Amino acid sequence: MAGLLFVVSGPSAAGKGTVCKRVLAETDLELSVSATTRKPRPGEVHGREYYFMTEEEFVRTIEENGFVEHVHNFGCRYGTLVRDVEEKLSQGKDLILEIDVQGGYLVREKFPDCILIFLIPPTLTELEHRIRGRGTEDEASIRDRLLTAEREVECLKDYDYLVINDQLDAAVEDMKSVIRAEQCRVTKNKYDSTVQFFKESR
Ligand code: ADP
Ligand code: 5GP
Integer distance in angstroms from the first to the last C-alpha of the chain? Predict the structure, then answer.
C-alpha cells in the first residue's frame, strides 16, 4: 500500500523545521529533502536540510521533469524532487514535505489524497522574534518574510489541519495526533486488505 503524504506549510520561521525534526525522531515518518538555490545556512548539510543546487542544476532538473513542484521564494528557487517522493511513497513509507503554501497547492493537484497541515506561531510579533532570533536573514529578507507571512496565513482556509506552534512540546503532540488519526483513517485499500486478512486469520 502506498504511503501517506503530509504537507507541512506555514510562514518562514514558524518552526516547521523544529517541529518536524521532533516528529521525525518520534515516529517512523520520513522527510522529503527539497532542492534549493539558496546558500546553506551555518550548520546546514547538503542532502540533509536541502540539496543545494546552482541555478544551472536547478533549471536542468526542471527540464528533466525532476520536480513535483517548484517555486521562486525570497529570490531563490525551491523544489520537491520527484525521485525522492515517488521512491519513498511506493515503498509504503509515510512522508512529510516541509514546503510553502504555493507548493502545497501544487502538490495537492498531483497528489489529491495528500494531507495539508498549516503551522503558525501564536502571533506575528512572535514570528518576527523567531526570524530575528534565528539570526540568518538580513533586514530586507526579514521584512519580505513578514509580509509574505500575512498573505500566507489566508491560505489556511484550504488546509486540512491547523497546528499552533506556541509551546513546542504541545505543537509536536498535535502534529503527531494528526498523523496518527490519518494513519487510522479507513480507505478503500485498507478496508479491502483488512477484511480479507481478518476473514483468513482463523
Ligand atoms: P521554519 O522551518 O518554519 O522556517 P525553524 O524551525 O527554523 O522555522 O524555527 C525558526 C526559529 O524559531 C528557530 O530559531 C527555532 O529554534 C525557533 N522556534 C521554533 N519553534 C519554537 C517554539 N515553539 N518556541 C520558541 N521558539 C521556537
Ligand atoms: P528557508 O529559506 O527558510 O529554508 O525556506 C523558505 C521557504 O521555502 C519556507 O516557507 C519553506 O517551507 C519553503 N520551501 C522549502 N522547500 C520547498 C520546496 O521544495 N517547495 C516549496 N514550494 N517551498 C519550499
Answer: 23
Question: Is the domain 31-93 a CATH 3.30.63.10 member?
Answer: yes
According to CATH, the topology of domain 1-29+96-202 is Rossmann fold (3.40.50)
Nearest ligand 2 atom to alpha carbon 49? 4
CB atoms within 10 A of CB 98: 22
Report d(CA 33, CA 110) in Å as an integer.
18
Same fold, 1-29+96-202 and 31-93: no
Cα 12 from Cα 121, distance rounded (Å): 10
Position 137 scores a pLDDT of 86
Ligand 2 pocket: which of 67, 99, 116, 120 to mutate (most atoms within 8 A of CB): 99
- Of the candidates 25, 46, 27, 26, the residue with the CA atom closest to the CA atom of residue 36: 46
User: What confidence tens digit (pLDDT) does each residue in 76-105 have?
Assistant: 999 999 998 999 999 999 999 999 999 999
The protein residue with its alpha carbon nearest to ligand 1, atom 19, reads 15
- How many A from CA of 64 to the centre of ligand 1? 34
Query: pTM for the full model?
Result: 0.93
Which protein residue has the closest C-alpha to ligand 2 atom 22? Answer: 103
Domain residue ranges in the chain: 1-29+96-202, 31-93
The grid cell for 137 is 536573514
